[in-house]
Amino acid sequence: MDNTKLARFITSLGSLNDYGSTVAQTKKALDAKSSAPLEQNNHDVAIFEDAISGIEAIKKIGFSVDGIIAVNKNFDSPDDEEPNIPGHLRNAMWNEAARIVVTTDSRARQSDNYFPPEIVTQSDLSKIVEEYKNSLKAEKDAWRVFASISKLQPFQDGNKRTALISANAAYEAWENENYLVLPFSDLDRADFTIQLMRYYKADSKSEENKYLDRMIDILPSAKERETKLRAPLSPEEINKEKLATTYKVKPQFRNENNKNF
Fold this sequence. Notes:
Oligomer: single chain
Number of strands: 0
CATH topology: Fic-like fold
InterPro entries: Fido, Fido-like_dom_sf
Protein name: Fido domain-containing protein
Domain Fido: 63-214
C-alpha cells in the first residue's frame, strides 16, 4: 500500500471535520502505525484512527448495507466529532439525539435548512447500494453514492466521512489506490460543499442530477487526481503555511452558533 496516497485520502476525508495535520504528518503516522506524529490538540487522532478502522472494515465486508454500517460502527473514538452510538441507524422516535438538521443557511432559519428523515432503515441504505450495483459503476455513480448517503444522514455523526469511504469501496478504490478525493483547493472544496447542500434540498431526481453534475464539474478530473495522488510530497503538504507578517483576518464564511429548532 502506498502510504503517501492513503495520507492524501485521509487528509481529504479529514477536511470534512477540520483535520489539521499535514499530509506528511499523516504519512508518518501511517508508516509508524501510530497517531503520535499527528497534531494532538484537535480531533485529528480520532479522525485518523477511525478512518483506518472504517476502511479496514468495509474492505473485509465489501460495499453493501452491512459494509456501510460497519464503517460508521468503527467511528468509536471518544471525540465530539464521532457518533455517540456508532453504527446505529437514526431513529428519532426513541433517541432524541437522532433528530438532526443540516444547516444550509448561515442564519439557521428553520425554513431554509435541510431536515433528513427522522427514521432511517436498512432498506434506505439498500436502495443506494442497489442503485449503484445497477449502474455503469462509473466515477459519477460512485460520487452519487457519496451524495446519497450524505443526504440520507443515516447515522448521528460521521455521515460524510462514512459516505466517502463507502463511495471508494463501491468504486473499488481500495484495490487500485486511485482514491476518490474532495477538491484540492479550499475554494473548490467550499463550492463543492455548497452544491452538496443544494443536492440535499433537491426534491426530485432531476434536481439531484443537476447538482450532482455541478459537484462533478468542481472535482479534479481522473487524470488530475491520479497525478496528485502519485506526486511526491509538496512543501505545502510538509509544512503548514504561515503568514509572513501579522494580518487582520476577515473570514468570508462565518459560522453561527448551533441553534435548536
